[in-house]
Amino acid sequence: MEEPLLATANNGLKSRVPRRWEVIAKEAKKVSYIALPMVVTTVSQYMVRVISMMMIGHLGELSLSGAAIATSLTNVTGFSLLFGMASALETLCGQAYGAGQYHMLGTYTYGAIISLLLVCIPISILWIFTEELLIMIGQDPLISHEAGIYTIWLIPTLFPYAILQLLVRFLLAQSLLYPMLLSSVAALVFHIPLSWVLIFKLKFGSGGAALGIGLSYCLNVILLGVYVKYSSSCAKTRITFSRDVFPSIREFFRFGIPSVVMICLEWWSYEIAILLSGLLPNPQLETSVLSICLTVSSMHYNIPYSFGTGASTRVSNELGAGNAQAAKLAAWVATFLAVLEGAVASTILFSCRSVLGFAFGNVKEVVDYVKELTPLLSLSIMVDCFAAMFCAVARGTGWQHLGAYVNLGAYYLCGNPMAYVLAFVLHWRGKGLWIGLTTASLLQGLMLMIITFFTDWKKQTREARERIFEGKPQLTVE
């Protein structure tokens, strides 16, 4: 009797193992289905501003310097805030969709649009005084004047940018990816000749570049808006006004404000590092090389960020649906995929360290310094993949407040002070600044991983369901 029983047990074990791998493979396919189109979408949206900067570079050093300063300032005071607040919909819309409360997606998104358009007003007022602000903090008057012109022309971009970020989250929660992909590519294709005409033919200069960015974002919003209004895929979730919109605004800010803090604390650290590099000996070399490293890192970050959106969407959908184990599996599978991609990208980048600098010029001093920093850059790309995934899990779960505390500790209590000491006290220059940022990113990822590891997923599922059904008596539940 023992042999048949043993054979049966072995067969049962063998059958469970393939089933487990089948579940993991199925989840990996779901995450990749979201991540791969999002890579194209995010890169296309990112390239709209990059192409404008490339064209401005042909206008002269003064125009480029002004636009660069303006870009840094507008990122810190405007775009990062809107991007961070829009991330609240990853929690709200994702969990509502998973719970089958489709009408709440439209309610949350409508309330978010009202909220962000109101936020754009004080940002616009601040941007009007960019020139005076830069002169006040000691910037060159000529550069400040150019930056002021560029920023004022960039004000109309705020409003379509805010709506675009919200529509992307609205569609992402439903895994409606290809409309975003097609509209983003169409806007990029439209942007290239439009910017050339505005900058060079109509002689609008850097102001034309800023205007071109706004018009391209407007086209993207119009295309997505038409899709949302008329597509049968959005029939149940369509964005319409109702009396539930105003109560939903409070819920949006409840997640939006910690989302801003979480994202901006990290974003601003890199801007601070670039500013600090200007205080080092040979500031032109240090700033140029750190800017190259940041450009490469930012370009690659679109990939782990896209895998992160896959993780955030899958986690929020499964929590809303009440599937605790599926949410946990989605988080870890997406992390594995992103880290695997990061390992491949880091290896390729490290292998190209001798030629990487030539992509940004032929100055031997710059090329050699880029080669020296590339091993650190490769490590930071790997670390960023790791951290980006757990930030995405935090957004999908609704832990933005924990993410804010983690980023505060990782960047401002550890990473930034370390960067300053290494760069200015130990005289490691730009290498010290980059080590500090990489250390902060590593700490961020480790702390969020520990939080994820010890998460009670059943409790998170209950909280998500309560938020949608029981915790919102002021919202009408169908």
Automatic annotation (TrEMBL):
Transmembrane is among the record's keywords: yes
Transmembrane domains' residue ranges: 33-56, 62-86, 107-129, 149-168, 180-202, 208-230, 329-356, 376-396, 408-428, 434-455
CC annotations in GO: membrane
InterPro entries, A to Z: MATE_euk (IPR045069), MATE_fam (IPR002528)
Record keyword Membrane present: yes
Gene Ontology BP annotations: xenobiotic detoxification by transmembrane export across the plasma membrane
Pfam families: MatE (PF01554)
Membrane-protein topology: Multi-pass membrane protein
Main localization (coarse): membrane
A GO term, aspect molecular function: antiporter activity
Subcellular location: Membrane
UniProt entry keywords in alphabetical sequence: Membrane, Transmembrane, Transmembrane helix
Family indicated by similarity: Belongs to the multi antimicrobial extrusion (MATE) (TC 2.A.66.1) family.
PANTHER family associated with the record: MULTIDRUG RESISTANCE PROTEIN
Protein name: Protein DETOXIFICATION
Protein's organism: Daucus carota subsp. sativus (Carrot)
